Amino acid sequence: MIGNEKPLLKSMMGDRIWRLMQSDPEAFKHETREYFARAYPGWTVVRVKYPLVLLRDDRKQV
Question: Quick one: DSSP state of residue 57?
Answer without folding.
Answer: E
